[in-house]
Amino acid sequence: MLSRVEIENLPAHELEILMEYGQDLLSPSELLGVQLFIQRIGGIQNARQAIEMLKKLEQ
């Protein structure tokens, strides 16, 4: 079973494979862990973009 730390240390190409074929390769809880990690990354990226946009609007 993949731990949270193991998931967070996977290279991007492996995460991409797990997102594509994870339901065949992982348990449901492992797949959820991968999906949640990727969502957190996306959330962080979106938050940074939102902050940059706010900074530009404030100028």
Model description:
The chain is mainly alpha-helical and 59 residues long. It has one domain (4-58). Helix content is 85%, strand content 0%. It is built from 3 helices and no strands. α2 packs across α3. The longest helix is centred in the last third of the chain and has 31 residues, at 28-58. The mean pLDDT is 92.
Query: Tally of extended strands?
Result: 0
Task: Count structural domains.
Answer: 1
Runs in which pLDDT lies below 50 for 5 or more consecutive residues are none
How far apart, in Å, are the first and last alpha carbons? 49 Å
Largest sheet: none
**Count of discrete alpha- or pi-helical segments spanning 4 or more residues:** 3
Helix-residue proportion: over 70%
**In angstroms, what is the radius of gyration?**
15 Å
Class from secondary-structure proportions: mainly alpha
Strand content: under 5%
Shape: elongated
Q: SSE order, as H and E?
A: HHH
Mean pLDDT: 92
Looking at this protein, list some descriptive labels.
single chain; 59 residues; mainly alpha; elongated
Short summary:
85% of the residues lie in helices and 0% in strands. The chain is built from three helices and no strands.
